[in-house]
Design brief:
This protein has 108 residues and is mainly alpha-helical. The chain has five helices and two strands, in the order ααααββα. 53% of the residues lie in helices and 11% in strands.
Length: 108
Amino acid sequence: MNENQAISALGALAHAQRLRVFRALVVAGPPGLTPSILADQLGVARNTLSFHLKELSHAGLVSVEPQGRNLIYRADFLQMNGLLGYLTEHCCQGVPCEASDSEACISC
């Protein structure tokens, strides 16, 4: 992932509703969800959800696949992991540390 892709992804996630949509798709995993199920789960109007899904898709965080009369949206885990990797690429000046181990990362 390059800097422009990271900025695009972070920009797309910098909205509370889009972050909720993305997290719901991450939880759903590879099977993904239809917009109607997402809208019901999140209590969002379908036209508003459509706008947010489009923004996430343009940022490369979400993929969409037609399946019969439905569209299936999925989190793009490769892109998500690429963003996480970009953000942590030079963590702790190259010294191994676990992000979940806050004491190990205090020095970085």
